[in-house]
Amino acid sequence: xxxxxxxxxxxxDSDSCDYKESTTYELSEGQTLQDxxxxxxxxSEDVKIAFVNSRKADFDTVLxxxxxxxxxxxxxxx
Length: 78
Hints:
Ubiquitin-like (UB roll); about 80 residues; single chain; five-stranded mixed β-sheet; mainly beta; 5 strands
């Protein structure tokens, strides 16, 4: 299955997690948001809030084909 990942602020890495264009990842059925974060090389402790299809999600959220994931760090008043 394919999911897209977008990162913001200090989590941005143009090769693994861009903010301009989503980065596409191929995952197996049943994989979680944590699996995607690990695969992208993002440290879980650096993620303040995660979204799947524009809704807040936890790291144990099981992802589905065509999900759109966003990761944001703690910045400013977060």
